[in-house]
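Appendix B, example 12.
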Amino acid sequence: MTREIALIRPGQDPSMTPLESMNRVESRARTYAATFEAVFEHGDGLKIRDSSGREFLDCLSCAGALPLGHNNPEVREAVLRFVSSGHVQQVLDLTTPAKIAFVEQLFAALPEKFAARAKIQFCSPSGSDAVEAAMKLARYATKRRPIIAFHGAYHGMTGGALAAMGNLVAKSGIGLDTCGIHFAPYPYRYRCPFGTDGTQTDELSASYLRTLLHDPDGGVPKPAAVIVEVVQGEGGCIPASDHWLRSVREMTRELEIPLIVDEVQSGFGRTGTMFAFERAGITPDIVVLSKALGGGYPLAVVVYDQSLDLWPRGMHVGTFRGNQIAMVAGKVTTEIILRDRLALQAAERGAQLRAGLRQIASLYPVFGDVRGRGLMLGAEIVKPGVGNSQKPADGDLAKSIQLAAFRNGLLIEAGGRNGAVIRLIPPLTITRGEVSEVLERLQSAVVAVLSRPRDHVAN
């Protein structure tokens, strides 16, 4: 039975629907709620249902924070047992049985070489705050200020993390101080920042960074850290090659510059390995974790090499860094990912999904590039034309496809450069049949959009 939901303010028209009421009171800065106009109230695995009973395939997964999908029964039962046990639920950073069990499980999941020398800092429960902590740690340990980030980077929405973001829209009009942040080209092969056809992008990007770090007249002091995403998520689902990542690790190690790997979205099996950096065989100095870390509940940590553990007591604190429910849910979630080999399943289902996206791309040239890794995939939408990488990005068309998919019962992301990349981040538990259903709904959405007059596509 549909539950009645009301949100009426004094003087407001009582005939307003709940969505109309929320439109009146919620911030203009909201994102997904302004795109997907429905009241969502039930979830099970890949599927969610709104208050009218409509069912959707959720390929957002709360931006990757739900690796097991909605309401995994094992996680739910663990949380219910914990809540009914009388255990403390919020205790700053005090030690508890739940915390000990969580840390033991997390360290068991980390690569052995990294875990053997690791320290952990619990942060306020967002990836942004963990990024802030990682940069603060590197700066304190090295006594240097500059940070090198990459074009297209996304590290969060708080001041320091936002300064290291590539997207200029989020920084506009707020007088953000980006002093100390320097940007280098990310190996974006489809639109090579050096104007090549993509075959030389990795080498040129690595060479640029090497020059930036070594040139005594380059204007950039030796940095406190280099921060990088192995797969850029919000930047357009762009994976870095193993070779490029190893090059970055080699040059930062040579110069004794801490390497921060932001695994907020790519961690915990998402890209086909437990952590995205593992595929390249590198060992970072600092790893930032959140989203899937808490099994659907807010939690964020920085895990780093013990040689950097020089900051004093109280250098990075936050009231809700002791979220015990998230630790319980995160421990069980990590156990399930390892037990059920969901990283391998992400690689297999990701290959199926990628093949399906490429099949759609072969039929509709508005799909300019299909890319990603595991179940972190994207397709760049372009205006058809001559050539390949020279086709202009088409953010309006990507938005239209996203909205048509929503009407067709499919939730997908639209972002990247110019908002022109449609992204799919389904749960790691997605089945072969569900992948086929996602592809069918997406292709139907593309057909529906392209069959309309182009002047009305974005409406």
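The chain has a mean pLDDT of 92. The radius of gyration is 22 Å.
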